């Protein structure tokens, strides 16, 4: 069990009357890529957001059960949510760079966490951009606006921004769905590089992408986790007829 980074037990989430997550029990491995697939509205994004308490920001949410990261209950009242979100960073579907320079986008998080030294910030900016495989494309324009980058570049910048605060977990909500195939490939290559160093949890509508990049796969339907396990195993021998129907395109 020592390589389990995130675990949920009897996790239920309600938006008002809407029972959006139903008794989710799973163990997410450290240093692996875990992908979530399932039809629109089945609760993939909701689940992802329970892992760094982004749902706290939504009115009328009720969460019961347990979510643990490194064995610690993240819903314990003593948890520092800012530190939790530093540990579990998020990348969204639409690239969302801040309206500021490329450099400042990356330095923003470290500055908030108290790093003021210029040399140290320079180092973090360069390393983060390199780790997100975008440094060479932007190194001569670090002081220019991030909004001048292409969509694919903006998304890699957002990944660099997430990496800049030294997270342990990356939560990625359909990170390539707004991107062209070449940018998608670059992000997939990047995720392969990030594997092992980070625990990556990704929501994707792209079944081929899930098959290509993930180690473990979860398939959900209307809030229920239908099947969860080794990606290759699920694609070759799904245990549940509903999973089989979904991955073979006979569903929805
Ligand atoms: N902020 C919210 N307030 C109320 N209900 C919500 C909220 N966010 C999501 N829901 C509801 O919870 C359910 C799950 O939504 P969620 O966005 O998690 O699904 P999803 O699987 O990520 O969908 P998609 O693939 O379309 O992004 C849906 O019924 C949705 O309408």
From TrEMBL:
It is found in: Cell inner membrane. Gene3D superfamilies: P-loop containing nucleotide triphosphate hydrolases (3.40.50.300). Its main location: membrane. Residues 6-247 form the ABC transporter domain. It is a peripheral membrane protein. InterPro entries: AAA+_ATPase (IPR003593), ABC_transporter-like_ATP-bd (IPR003439), ABC_transporter-like_CS (IPR017871), P-loop_NTPase (IPR027417), PstB-like (IPR005670). It comes from the Bacteria. GO terms for biological process: phosphate ion transmembrane transport. Keywords: ATP-binding, Cell membrane, Membrane, Nucleotide-binding, Phosphate transport, Translocase, Transport. Pfam families: ABC_tran. CDD domains: ABC_PstB_phosphate_transporter (cd03260). GO terms for molecular function: ATP binding; ATP hydrolysis activity; phosphate transmembrane transporter activity. GO terms for cellular component: plasma membrane. Part of the ABC transporter complex PstSACB involved in phosphate import. Responsible for energy coupling to the transport system. NCBIfam families: 3a0107s01c2. This is Phosphate ABC transporter ATP-binding protein PstB. It comes from Gallintestinimicrobium propionicum.
